Each structure stands twice: as C-alpha cells, then as structure tokens.
# Entry
Amino acid sequence: MSTKIILSSDGIPLEQSLKKSERKNKIRALLLVAPLFLFILIIYVFPLGDMLFRSVDNRMITEMLPNTFSALEKWDAKELPSEEIYEAFYNDFYPLAKAKKSGKLFQRLNYEKSGFSSGLKKTNKLILDFKKENYKEQFMNTHEIWRSLDYWIAIKNTSPKWTYVKYLKGIDLTLDQQKKIVQVEDEKSIHVTLWLRTLKVAFWVTVSCFLLSYPIAYLLSTIPMKYSNLLMICVLLPFWTSLLVRTSSWMILLQQEGPINNLIVWLGLAADDNRPELMHNMIGTFITMSQILLPFMVLPLYSVMKTIPPSLMRAGKSLGGTPLISFVKIYFPLTIPGIGAGCLLVFILAIGYYITPALVGGASGSLISNMIAYHMKSSLDWAFAAALGTMLLVAVLTIYWIYHKLVGIDNIKLG
Amino acid sequence: MALPKYTPLHYRIWHYSYLTICGLVFLFLVAPLFVILPLSFNAEPFLHFSDKMLALDPEAFSLRWYKEMIFGTKNPWGLAAKNSFIIAIFATIGSTILGTLAAIGLSSRYMPYKAAFMALLISPMIVPLIISGTAIFFFMAKVGLAATHTGIVLSHIILGTPFVVITVTATLSGFDHSVTKAAASLGSNPVNTFMKITLPLIMPGVISGALFAFVTSFDEVVVVLFLAGLENTTIPIQMWVGLREQISPTILAVATCLIILSTLILVTAELLRRRSERLRGIKRN
Amino acid sequence: MKKISKLLLALSFVLSITSSAFAVTVVSFGGAYTESQKLGYGDPAAKKLGIPIDWVDYTGGLSEIKAQIEAKAITWDIIDLYSMDTIIGCDEGLFHEFDFDKDFYPAPDGTPASKDFFTDMPSKCAVGNILYSWIYAYNTKNVKGTPKTIEDFFNTKKFPGKRGVYKDALGNLEIALAGDGMKPGKGGKEIYEALKTPEGLERALNKFKTLCTDPKGGCVFWNAGAQAPEFLVSGEVVMSTGWNGRFFKAAIVEGAPIGQIWDGQILDYEYFALVKGGPNYENGDAMKALKEMTSPEGLAGSAKYIAYAPWRKSSIKIMEAGEPWFNDGKTKMVPQMPTAPANTKSYILMDAQFWADNNTELQEKWEAMKAGL
# Structure
C-alpha cells in the first residue's frame, strides 16, 4: 500500500506543518505562563528553599568560635576539657565580649542548652579582666557552667556546619552525648503535643464544617433561585469580610459575660456564677475557626450539588426507595467530589491557622503556627522556626498532593 | 417552601426541623458580624456590653470611637488606610496581569504539563500564610526589601495570583475558541485579537479575580506582620495590634467600616458573576 | 513588567519621602501609658524642637529590635524598656551609651542630671523615665468581700474566679512567693535569694500551676497593659495583676468598678534607651528628642495624665508645687504614686540584675509551665 504525502498549500508536508504550528502554539502558551512562573519561582519557591537551607545552616556559631571547635575536635567528651581548649575559647570569646558582639552567641548556645544565657552573660563581664594564664581555672571560677561536662558537650554538639538537630527538636527529640537520638526532658517536650493538637483541631473543625455546611448547601442548591441568591449572601458576606473583623466579633461573643454566655445562663443551661469558659482555650479556637472556615466548605459542596439533577432523587423514590435510601444510595455518592474538595481545603487552611488561635485560643488553644510565630517574633530562633515551617510545609504539600490525585487542582472553585 | 397537603406528618416534622437547622447555621454564619455594630457605639472604653447598653439607655451610646478613629490623638488609621489601599491596588494590578496571562496560557490545549504548572501556580493559596510569611521575610531581609512597600506588594502579588488564575481559567473554560480563530483568519494579529476579542469576553472573570486579589491583599495580616515596618502599617496590622495591645472600641468602629466595604465588594462581585454568566450564555438551573 | 516595577520603585521612593521617615519613633507600652507620655512630654518636645515624634506600641522585650537589626531594617529610635532589658541590650551593644551629665538637662537648681535621679542607672544605656508598680486589682462588682493582701490573689476558696496574669515570668515569680507566705517586707531581698535556688523557683512555679489549674480559679494571660482592666471590666477575670497606672486610669477617669491592692506590690523602674543605628541616630534628632523628654519639666508632665512617678527628684518637686497635678484639676497625684507611704507598707523592689542574668532560663521554665496547663 502506498501512502500519499499530503501537502499543505505552501508545499510543506501537512504533518510537518501541523507539528510546526503546534510547537508554535505550545511555545506561545508557555510564554504566557512564563512571567508568573518565573515570578513565583524567584519570590516564592526560592525563598521556601532558602528557608529549608536556613533550618539546617549552623555556620553562624562555627564562624564565631573557630578556635574552640578546632581545639574540641580531639576532645573525647569524657572529662572536662584541657587548658588549651579553655584558652581557645578565651581567644574566640574575648574579642566578641570586647566588641559587645556576643549577644547572638548567648542566644544560640542557650537554644542548645538552657543555662548558657546566664553563664555566658556573667562570663561576658568578667572575661575582660582575665589574666592571660590559667584560663581553665579562671573560667571555672566565673560560673558553674564551666565546671560542667554537659555544657562542654553541648558546645561540641554545635560544631557541625550543617545540622538536622532543629528537626529533631521539632518532634521533641535531641542528640545525646554519644550523638544518639533521644527524647528530650518531659518539661520541654511540648512540640509533639502541639502537632497533635493542631491535627486534632483541624480534624474536628473539618468535621463540624462538613456537618454544618451539608444541609445548607443542599438547601441552597434545591430552592428557587430568588431565595438561594439571598441566602447565598449569608455565606458570601463572611467570606468577603476581613478575618480580623470576624475574629474580633467572636472575641466579644465568647466573653465570660458576653452575649453567648448570657444566653446560656438565661436558658438555664448554666448557673450565673458558673459560666462556661468559651474563650482563651481550645473551645474558643474551635468555634471561631469553624465559623470562619465554613464558607470554604459550603462553596465547593454547593457547586457540586447544583450539577445533580433533582430528577435523580425522584427516580429513586418512584422506584420504591424511601427518601433515606435514595439519599444514601444515590445523592450522597454524587456529592463526594464536593465533600473531598471542601474537606481538604478546610483541613489545609485549618492546619496553618495563626491569627485566630492567637487571639481567642489562649495558652491551651494555640497551634503549631503560633509556635512558629513565637520563634520568629519572640525567641528569635529563626532556624527552629524555619525547621517547624518546613515540617508543616511538607505536611501541607502531602495533603495538597492527595487532593490533587483525588479531586484535581483545577477543580477548585470559588463561588 | 410550602409542603403539599398530602405530606405525611413525620415527613412534615422532618422538613421543618431541617429548615430550622439550616436557619441556625445561617445565623451562625452571619450573626457574629452584627454583634460589632452596636458595640462600636459604646460610650465606654471597653469591648463589653455595659448594663446601660443592654437597657438601651441612650447615654451609653456615643460616636466617641468613630471620632477617635478619625480625629484621635495618636492616630494610626489614616496612614494605615492609605497604605492598605496603595498596597492592595498595586498588588491587584500585578496579580491580575500576571494571573490573566498565565491563565490564558494554561487554558490553551497546547500547554504542556498543565496540571503541574497549575499546582505550582496555585500553591501560594494552599501553603499556610505563616510559612509563606516566614520564607518571604527571610528573602526580603536578604535583598533589602524588608519594611518596604515594594516588598509587601511583591509578596501580595504572589498571594493574589492564584485567585486570578482560578477565576480566569474558569471563565475561559466556557470560552468559545472559534471566535479567536475567526479573528485570526480575518487577519488580526494575536495581540489585537486578545485586546479586541478575548479580553472583553473574559473581562468579568478578570475583574472578579482582581477583586479576590484586592481583598486578599487588603485583608492580609500574617505576611505583613512579618514584613512591615512602621511606615508600612496597614489596616489589618492596626486591627491586630489593637486587639492584642490596645483593646479600644476604635477597632470596632473600623470593623464596622470594613463590613460596609466588604458588603460593597460582595455586591460588585455578585453582579459581575451574573453578567459573566449571561455573556457566556450559561443558564443556572 | 518593567513599567510596573519602575512604577513600584518610583512609588516606594515617593512614599519614603512623603511618609514620616524623618519623625523620631518612640516605642512604648501603648494605651493610657503611651498617651500620658505623648501628651506629657512627647508633644511639647516635638513642638519645641520642630521634630515630629511618632509613638508606637509594643509589649516589652528586645526581640523585635533584634529582629529589626537582623533584617537590616531598623525603624525604632527610642525604646521604653524594662530595666532588665536595658542591661541586656547594653551588654549586647544594641544601645547608645550615655554621658549623663552632658547628654541630659540638669535640675532647675543646677544639680547635674546624674545626681537628680533617684538611684544610679542600671546601665550606661538607660535613662530613667518613671517608677511604676505591679499590683493587682479586682472587680468590686464580682468579688464578694474585700481582698486585702497578696495572699488573697491566690486564695480561690475565699475569692473564687479567674485571675488575669502577665504573660511572662517577670514579676509573677516574685508575687508567687509573696503570696505563698514569704513576706516581702521592704524590698523583698529574700524572695530573690529564694528564686535563685531550684527549690524556690519550683515553689513559685507550682503556686501558679495550682492557681491556674484550680477549677475554682484559672488564669487568663494578658500581653498588654490595657488588657488587665479590660479583663476585669468585661468580667473575664475577677482579679488581675497589672500596672498601677492602668488601673488608676480605668477607675478614676473611666469610673470602672476596680479596687487596687498595694500589698506585696513590685516597685519597678522604667527606662528609655536610644537604639544605635536607628533612623535618627546619626543626625542626632533622636538624642535631642530624648533630652527634651527627660527634662525635669518633661517627666513631671507625664504624671499629669497617669499615676506613675517621674524619675527625677526635681520633677517630684515640680509636681508637689503644682498640686492638684492631675489633668482633671482636682485629683492630687502625689498620694497616687507607687512610692506614696500608704502604698509601700510591704513591697518588693524589682531586682533588674537578677532578671537580666536569669530571664532566659526563667522564661523557658515559665513557658513550659504554661504549656502544661
């Protein structure tokens, strides 16, 4: 069988010509996406990578104590270091103390082991008058940390230029003297609790959002347009209103003597002098986040339900099913894509919530994001904040990926 | 919603309790917003309904906090409002242009790795703000853009583009490509086709995306909290500071204004959406 | 895109000129206190010098200024600080070191500045501002009976209800021991000695743990000075620790139902420090503003608006001569001061050096206690 090559009008084989124009279209499409792609790459993806880098970067301290670390290399960590090591530390620390640049060192070493801050602060003052001999003795007279093996081991543990210790700390683990991974002391193990609490709150917020939004999404999708448009405003108005406005309204509602508690007392559900505590705890975080995230569940559910023809339910009924059976067997399965979209969206948003828990959550209602903010703003342990951030990012991207596999990213709809 | 007469009783009960539940959920959604309005007229400096207010004593109500908001002695709201609008407007322009172009590219059927690109371009909407804020802060500090308007605008463009990409892609999904082909076959160049044909048709989608971008920037607090210096303070920052540190009902006066603003935006967005559906010939129900 | 980025650059340039970049920025604790500072000496100083002064709120601590230095975007000029932070910041080289007699005004009678202060400054970087108190107050409507002593703050049997507690360890550990029966007397030196031992610290932390987990008690933590009276009035708590000036303002000016307890008060000093490398450091405007604000008349001026004692002996004389000094024209201010004899029957004097040395570790333990509630 012979094939005849089809030519286009200008004499080039059609297949080739088509490919060429296809390639041209492809390039055109890519060029259109390119500006945003590059922009996001530079101002978003690169910073995220930089954050990852920062979480393992330990060079600040290795640059501050170069002599000490090279002297410590041979030290066996069995007994207190020798005179040379103390001298090396003096040579590193003295210039810093003199130039008043040792503040970062206090901070850095204190993240490693509590007690460094006060010990180094005291040393910082006294080191200026040290005699240039008997360093070990002079240090040991300055503060008890210099008489303790543990503190020297802590210094030695900070010597690698790159470290994953911050990630261990994020799940309440640490390295012991033999560089084995061990649990941190009980009083300091708060991160696992926070992770679990974050997951728990995100889970229950998702569940309550689902339970609350399913009936109203159904109502919205079945009643006539003129009513549904009006009711839709109830969903969209909070959606468009500033998060802080909504949070502040809850701060008023949930007060001890606020409207909700007044209502509870008036209904006789609680005694006046025994009002339930609705704010500055987990309940506050839970209620407020449920309300704030509710529209993110209603909208995807609604957009799916709108596409289900009402005749399906009627068909179920006419075939003899009770409303309940036709709902469970016919209607519910059809709404699953909407449920998936809504639940994952709410869960992802809830897991990273910061503002609301910070304002209504108090100490027991705060989440992992509040911990990140605490290390960014207060303790200034930026490396640890970056490590926690990276861990949270991995969690979110995993869920995002699952979402993508199950629902498809391009199915996100907004109202 | 009246039921036919022959409806059995248990179904009636079920139906009305269902409607009651829905009513309560709608109340739960909207009522919190309205608690702010009366309290913003409180005469006392506390975020609390005084007994006098509950008794509707006219003396307990005043415009004190609205006056404070506008004429107060140590008044950050003027600067904050100016910054918020400037930042939001520039961020909106940036994200609308970048987002619309990208959406057009993504909607082309010749676009390779469509899903992967889409996933990446939407990611700023999915990644928790606290992480974006942390990462962007480190970056901006490194390049010397911390505590500048430019730094904030750039990060808000990032946060706003996913919304533009989503809404414009959605508009383009109902777009009849034969129109542009017709234009091309009549000798129009691509830029001309885009400006004269495509853009006017997808305009409602672009505008509603732009509205999303505007609101995202205007309401955004976490990233700004990390990035902003004193001169870049915005309305959300001042609200945050106010709620945590000053606790004066001025916040409620501002909140009332913001609720009015969001109502206006909602109405605009809703009108645009309907117009878009009409233009694209989509009929609801 | 180029056009846009050019536009953006142009815009930020224009904004950096038109906005208040040249104003001296003073950072303080907000609310009634900042208002007293602004009206008392900020505005007069700005008027005299022709340099605008901006006031910004924060909740204490050095982390924000350190973060600004780290991010190379310093926006603060002068900070109103806890005494411990002036010591820490000075040792870490964040602040300018003063030459007191040269940098500040002498008293009206010619006494050099360093002799006009109540005590020596805790560090070379600190210049005195006010004396204030950590006291506790209660809502007179919600509390049955009248609390009298610091023990009553922890007595949930006699006075059930939630307590407002400061977010940080500072000040709390002291009152915990005082409330646990360790009488502070005049100054409370023993309390600090006890806190230096692990047992004393444990005892203090346990006191709060018991209070906060008590079903009849419970704690709500406050960040900002304005929150303490807010919590009391809104019924969130029945008693709260706080700064005396805030309670004074809420009770006297706003007429809120608040009673103040001075027993076991912590007398503390508040200082200004000048940020090295702040936006108005090189051109000297920040120093000029600070000099005006801390003049004898300046410091006395702030006491017209709040019940905090000025740092200079000469300012107190100015106040005494001008009584009734409060801006309502009828309230005498000297008896409202934390230093008034009636208020100092039993008090703790804040040990700044103790906190400067140990704050990091104490705060860690405190946070762990809070996280375990």
Q: What stands out?
A: Chain A has two domains: 60-159, 191-411. The longest strand of chain A covers residues 173-175. The radius of gyration of chain A is 31 Å.
